[in-house]
């Protein structure tokens, strides 16, 4: 994902360590040598700092440059663009004009094709595997150096003394050195042979780090099964396609033995490397604000803070500027067209019937840009047919596109290429995988079939599927405009409004299409709500986010000067809760959740469960296909139980929850507040009723007998996921921390255990037999408590939990609860007449005794 960073006072410390990892995707400092060589001559600036021994490059002897026509013969196939590309038999040459030398070029590496063995490890076509900024420069003795540029540390003002100090401390690494094979006839260009370097394994044209390969099970590079597929040059970019083969690590993740590249097989992938020239003059940046969700790029600035350093984060956005003759109109508040609109072309390979919906998904954002003062700022259009326009290409960096991929991947993604100096988005290729249609079909059936008859079959009409594709298109386009997921948007809507036909059809079920709030699962059949009240749409938050990111402030000459004005705008807008941004990376805030709806998870989930119960009874009929088996039934039943589990997750996040509302010092109120006791008690009551009291309605024998699933497995999977969240160091640690902050006004950990024991262990007090579902639940509960008292317990990912769990009350309370349960078992056993219940209780008692006294 992208780098996120909170720049406001009090938030920097928490995010810094996590975000630095993402920043390295833009400006990594890993150096991997592709070839062995003797020490070459180096530029004077490198000699002074590193010495010649620090550099390895081309292993070939340094021949003197030859006449141009002896190198680039009449047999060469030449392509002109950012720089000339010459192909001569199996050799590739770059002809670098002197005007290109020193020009900063962004290189983005993506997997363009992958085998099943890589896809199984989450290595999909379209995945970015590396990113760097480079420049070519002349060296001594007829050499061209490829230098890798890092923007992690920066002093932007070259007139200040700090600039020179930073430059001396951050010499940019030389990643490769090339002999000049020939000089251009006018002596204003250099020809270099790049064949071996591009075809090799290096950080510029492959993975930025070894970890990237390891993640998808790729090991040692196999050079004799790798080659250059194609190199094409366009006015602003060069596209390099390579086919590279690697030893394949086993599923265990253990690397193959040294020297045995074939031991575990091999995998071949196709990599597309885009070399995009950065603008000669960077766009004016806009600094990130955690109250509005944008992707970012950034650096450490040594000038901004006179007594320290400052972590600067700039939002990613397109360069939208009025035409010079329209600037006066723009300043008066009139809508004007931008000099260069954002255009998304639809891949000609896309099935024709879906093209209008994809275009509509792009054009839906036009109304948002009107809030920023631009009309017709974004346009979707069909790409030229290759048969009619052989020059136009999807790979040209001047063209952004929605690319259709006939893939089994059930997903879509909206990556973008941006300038690390300013955040300017340069181009984007949205990946629309064919099988995303299955994903949205499954979601829509399970979340709305109770109220929308069109969703009660396995093959949707083209109209319905087109509407769902339009929603996916709009969401992914939002990402390419710089917008992050807004998981908090849906929490601003009162649950009962989601059942109000007039209100929800007018306003939508969430204020942001960037939320993961797929469809209105709260609506009940008697509400008679139509599609407008069920689908996501571009909403109030999206309009505000585009206004904040793209509204020009011509009176301010730099990013720092406009911060005050943007802050005033944001404080004013914050009065409308529908414009609130809830980050997707907060594990503690129950208002920021994926796949949820409404301002009360308990009430929304109750309505959702009512609809699941209606749908479950009909699934055998709705999934029936003549001459087919029960695969569709199994898939949709799994989707239904997954949706049920989501509801349990939405509710359980309220236990120990901490609300987060980023603010500047000009705003009233606290940034962090604990979830009210009444809300946490309401959540516990919901879990008691809907989950810990066995949800036997999920056990449809007719379905389970046809798909071969055990009812015990279905119930246990749902209960275990929630118990793992509740009986965990992060949740219990937050309860303890809340008590330290709020005293008796907090939901105390002892009260929590009283509630959960009353729910899960009720048979011990009532002297009732314990059925098989409840026996399994009680075993899971005791086992979770036992896990808490084991040495080396991890603290979890919450910032509100002590990093040293052994020094917190979590272990002490867990031990006390185990002793308490053992006492309850001892009191209940004499009155228990059911044999299996007795066996179960004896088992629990022995587990607890061993956990508390492992040597006894």
For the structure shown, list the relevant keywords.
alpha+beta, Collagenase (Catalytic Domain), 11-stranded antiparallel beta sheet, 23 strands, 17% strand, disordered N terminus
Number-wise, the strands total 23
**CATH topology name of the largest domain:** Collagenase (Catalytic Domain)
Q: What are the low-pLDDT stretches, counting only 5+ consecutive residues below 50?
A: 1-59, 258-263
Straight-line distance between termini: 50 Å
Major sheet size, sense and barrel closure: 11 strands, antiparallel
3D structure, described in words:
- The structure is a single chain.
- The chain is of the alpha+beta class.
- The chain folds into three domains: 31-277, no CATH class; 324-622, Collagenase (Catalytic Domain), CATH 3.40.390.10; 633-653 and 693-852, no CATH class.
- Helix content is 34%, strand content 17%.
- Strands 1-2-3-9-8-6-5-4-12-11-10 form an eleven-stranded antiparallel sheet. It has a five-stranded mixed sheet with strand order 16-15-17-21-18, covered by helices on one side. A three-stranded mixed sheet has the order 7-13-14.
- Helix 9 packs across helix 12 and helix 11 (436-448) crosses helix 17 (631-652).
- It starts with 11 loop residues before the first helix and ends with a helix.
- 43% of the residues are buried.
């Amino acid at each position: 994902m992208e780098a996120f960073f909170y720049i406001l006072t009090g938030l920097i410390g928490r995010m810094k360590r996590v975000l630095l990892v993402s920043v390295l995707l833009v400006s990594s400092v890993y150096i991997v040598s592709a070839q062995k060589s003797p020490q070459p001559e180096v530029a004077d600036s490198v000699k002074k700092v590193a010495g010649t021994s620090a550099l390895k490059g081309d292993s070939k002897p340094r021949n003197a440059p030859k006449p141009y026509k002896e190198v680039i013969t009449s047999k060469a196939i030449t392509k002109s663009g950012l720089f000339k590309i010459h192909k001569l038999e199996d050799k590739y040459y770059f002809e670098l004009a002197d005007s290109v030398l020193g020009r900063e070029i962004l290189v983005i590496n993506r997997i363009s094709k992958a085998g099943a063995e890589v896809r199984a490890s989450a290595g999909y076509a379209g995945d970015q595997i590396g990113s760097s900024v480079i420049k070519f420069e002349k060296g001594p003795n007829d050499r061209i150096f490829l230098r890798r540029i890092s923007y992690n540390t920066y002093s932007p003002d070259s007139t200040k003394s700090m600039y020179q100090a930073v430059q001396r401390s951050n010499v940019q690494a030389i990643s490769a050195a090339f002999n000049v094979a020939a000089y251009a006839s006018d002596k204003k260009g250099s020809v270099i042979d790049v064949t071996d370097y591009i075809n090799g394994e290096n950080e510029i044209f492959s993975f930025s780090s070894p970890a990237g390969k390891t993640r998808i099970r790729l090991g040692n590079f196999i050079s004799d099964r790798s080659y250059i597929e194609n190199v094409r040059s366009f006015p602003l970019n060069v596209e390099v396609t390579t086919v590279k083969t690697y030893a394949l690590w086993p599923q265990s993740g253990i690397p193959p033995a040294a020297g045995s590249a074939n031991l575990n097989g091999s995998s071949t992938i196709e990599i597309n490397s885009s070399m995009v020239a950065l603008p000669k003059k960077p766009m004016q940046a806009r600094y990130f604000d955690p109250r509005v969700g944008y992707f970012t790029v950034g650096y450490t600035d040594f000038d901004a803070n006179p007594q320290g350093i400052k972590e600067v984060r700039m939002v990613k956005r397109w360069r939208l500027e009025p035409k010079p003759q329209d600037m006066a109109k723009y300043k008066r508040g009139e809508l004007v067209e931008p000099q260069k609109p954002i255009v998304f072309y639809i891949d000609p390979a896309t099935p024709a019937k879906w093209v209008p919906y994809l275009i509509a998904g792009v054009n839906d954002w036009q109304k948002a840009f009107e809030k920023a003062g631009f009309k017709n700022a974004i346009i979707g259009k069909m790409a030229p047919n290759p048969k009619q326009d052989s020059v136009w290409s999807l790979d040209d960096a001047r063209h952004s596109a929605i690319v259709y991929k006939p893939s089994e991947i059930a997903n879509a993604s909206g990556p973008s290429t941006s300038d690390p100096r300013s955040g300017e988005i340069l181009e984007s290729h949205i990946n629309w995988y064919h099988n995303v249609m299955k994903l949205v079909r499954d979601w829509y059936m399970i979340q709305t079939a109770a109220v929308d008859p069109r969703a009660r079959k396995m093959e949707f009409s083209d109209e319905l599927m087109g509407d769902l594709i339009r929603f996916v298109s709009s969401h992914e386009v939002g990402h390419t405009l710089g917008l992050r997921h807004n998981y908090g948007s849906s929490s601003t809507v009162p649950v009962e409004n989601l059942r109000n036909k007039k209100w929800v059809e007018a306003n939508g079920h969430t204020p942001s299409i960037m939320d993961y709030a797929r469809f209105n699962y709260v609506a009940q059949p008697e509400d008679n709500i139509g599609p407008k009240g069920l689908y996501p749409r571009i909403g109030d938050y999206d309009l505000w986010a585009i206004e904040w990111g793209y509204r020009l402030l011509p009176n301010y000459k730099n990013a720092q000067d406009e911060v005050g004005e943007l802050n005033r705008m944001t404080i004013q807008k914050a009065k409308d809760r529908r414009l609130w941004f809830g980050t997707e990376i907060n594990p503690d805030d129950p208002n920021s959740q994926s796949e949820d709806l409404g301002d009360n998870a308990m009430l929304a989930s109750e309505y959702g469960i009512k609809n699941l119960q209606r749908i479950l009874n009909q699934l055998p009929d709705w999934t029936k296909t003549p001459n087919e088996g029960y695969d569709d039934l199994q898939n949709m039943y799994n989707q239904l139980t997954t949706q049920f589990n989501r509801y349990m997750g939405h509710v359980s996040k309220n236990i120990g929850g901490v609300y987060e509302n980023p603010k500047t010092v000009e705003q009233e109120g606290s940034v962090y507040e604990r979830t009210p006791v009444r809300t946490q008690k309401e959540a516990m009551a919901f879990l008691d009723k809907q989950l810990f009291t066995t949800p036997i309605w999920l056990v449809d024998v007719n379905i389970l007998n046809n798909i071969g699933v055990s009812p015990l497995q279905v119930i246990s999977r749902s209960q275990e996921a929630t118990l793992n969240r509740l009986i965990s160091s992060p949740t219990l640690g937050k309860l303890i921390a809340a008590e330290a902050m709020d005293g008796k006004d907090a939901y105390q950990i002892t009260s929590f255990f009283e509630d959960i024991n009353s729910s899960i262990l009720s048979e011990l007090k009532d002297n009732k037999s314990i059925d098989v579902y409840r026996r399994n639940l009680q075993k899971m509960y005791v086992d979770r408590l036992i896990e808490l008292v084991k040495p080396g317990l991890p603290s979890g990912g919450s910032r509100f939990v002590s990093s040293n769990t052994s020094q917190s009350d979590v272990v002490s309370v867990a031990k006390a609860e185990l002793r308490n349960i053992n006492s309850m078992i001892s009191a209940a056993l004499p009155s228990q007449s059911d044999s299996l219940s007795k066996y179960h209780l004896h088992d629990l008692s022995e587990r607890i005794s061993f956990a508390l006294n492992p040597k006894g």
